[in-house]
Amino acid sequence: MKLDNRTDVLKLLSSKASIKILKSVSKPPKLGEKAGMTKSDISTETDVVYSHTVDKIKNLEKWGLVRVTQNGRSSNVQATNEGKEVAKKIDEISELLQPIDRR
What domains appear along the chain, each with residue ranges and CATH number? Predict the structure, then answer.
């Protein structure tokens, strides 16, 4: 299921946790690190409770913005190309809404 209607888009944009998670998994990996993050690492980095993180990741996956793969007992979460594009657009919108520095 993709972000098909305005309700889905508003759900995404009105959830600070979803935005933080999407932006977190959209960052390129650091040198020497593999792509993707575990749900626990995402929870820690975004300061979102683990159970809430898991719920938001399910929504992001349903909308086609992240991909979750199993690695034994842990899950690896990566942003899809669409997810990276949405995260980029959210950053652009945030920049537009920043107060103008008037020095």
Answer: 6-97 (1.10.10.10)
